[in-house]
Amino acid sequence: xxxxxxxxxxxxxxxxxxxxxxxxxxxxxxxxxxxxxxxxxxxxxxxxxxxxxxxxxxxxxxxxxxxxxxxxxxxxxxxxxxxxxxxxxxxxxxxxxxxxxxxxxxxxxxxxxxxxxxxxxxxxxxxxxxxxxxxxxxxxxxxxxxxxxxxxxxxxxxxxxxxxxxxxxxxxxxxxxxxxxxxxxxxxxxxxxxxxxxxxxxxxxxxxxxxxxxxxxxxxxxxxxxxxxxxxxxxxxxxxxxxxxxxxxxxxxxxxxxxxxxxxxxxxx
Amino acid sequence: xxxxxxxxxxxxxxxxxxxxxxxxxxxxxxxxxxxxxxxxxxxxxxxxxxxxxxxxxxxxxxxxxxxxxxxxxxxxxxxxxxxxxxxxxxxxxxxxxxxxxxxxxxxxxxxxxxxxxxxxxxxxxxxxxxxxxxxxxxxxxxxxxxxxxxxxxxxxxxxxxxxxxxxxxxxxxxxxxxxxxxxxxxxxxxxxxxxxxxxxxxxxxxxxxxxxxxxxxxxxxxxxxxxxxxxxxxxxxxxxxxxxxxx
Lengths: 269, 247
Fold this sequence. Notes:
The structure holds 2 protein chains of 2 kinds. By secondary structure, chain A is mainly α. Chain A has helices at 2-40, 47-57, 62-85, 93-131, 134-140, 145-183, 188-198, 201-227, 232-265. The radius of gyration of chain A is 23 Å and the shape is globular. Chain B is built from 9 helices and 10 strands. Chain B has helices spanning 40-47, 70-76, 95-105, 112-125, 141-153, 171-188, 199-205, 223-227, 232-243; strands at residues 2-11, 14-24, 29-33, 55-60, 63-64, 80-83, 159-163, 191-196, 208-213, 216-221. Classes of the chains: A mainly alpha, B alpha/beta.
């Protein structure tokens, strides 16, 4: 018996430690989510912080959103246009780009841009506050750090990612329109009529719902990573990287499941 | 009065406090000294409820901190002011806004004029009047600590905790901070707890000195008694500190 134990313990011990460690992390994250939701409904409500974060996450992301949306719409139209040209289907370029943008590319790319621009900075800022004792200082001044730092960021992100998604959709369509009409020389009338015909309010709304869900998770993950930072400047760097990687992966994985749910129950096309 | 009773605390399996016992009298300055990494800061964090003991109790003015709910603990903390080792100023706010932060946060005063008056008064107390518009990044280490002190006393706490107030400061600034600690205590009649590894500074300010070693309080006495302690660790600490002083 002892020999068997000696044989398997090098495998079982680290495996057990790994499982315990991951379970603890999951527990801590769940407690963090619970605290954040509880503090959302408890006064004092921090409207000034909320608007400040809306400005940071939303208004200041417009430049990068406009730039990336324009070029992704344009390049998408260019590629699709070339392929559709083989079948003389160029007039469908606007509809295809419009559907892809509203349903997928808009919310996913808007969320990824917010991850790159705002969430990385959230994790780094909160992480730095943690390692320089500023979060402890908040607590000693009887201010709950989750309510002060996390709640405004979370809800600002939930509100702003869908708005950025709208902007992304709109500018992306402009990009595809310009390439379609002026580069691929697709006649404007059929291009627009197919776009109007195929892209519905449902497509648009499904994108907004996705944007809000992505906004919720990316802000939560980034704040959590910042909040649990230890180990000085190196720790801040490590946690910022984790925040960006986990948030981006979450957006893409969650997108699949949200899409399958939306296609199953809401959009049967 | 603060009572620390048989407090144990470990982090990731490493035992930091092993049955720490200490009585901190009201209205006096208690200095807790000890070598780096002996658990001084961990003990201080227990006093304000930033950490909860694994075993044992921390009782402040008759209230057991570990029994308080989060909201009650937050309310209770308004009695405390704390000066952090790194001063922990909010770097996105100016000096003025940092000191005004607790006042604005707890909406104790709606009148901006009154807030301004109190903040200027506190900044004057720490000798930094006129620095209100500066950002924390523009300040030296000593100035940051003084702003941290102004922020800690702005709500007029009954208990003031200092985490290594003179570490990293030049000798002149150390004496200035020591004098501030003394004048705070005389002016505001508050209970002060100072964490330090600077024995000279401890002798300058303390009414009571406690020494912590390997997670326990090994000696606690008035400075004159402490100076002549028979405890070998205390003697070694005092003589090592003396010998390392520049001649």
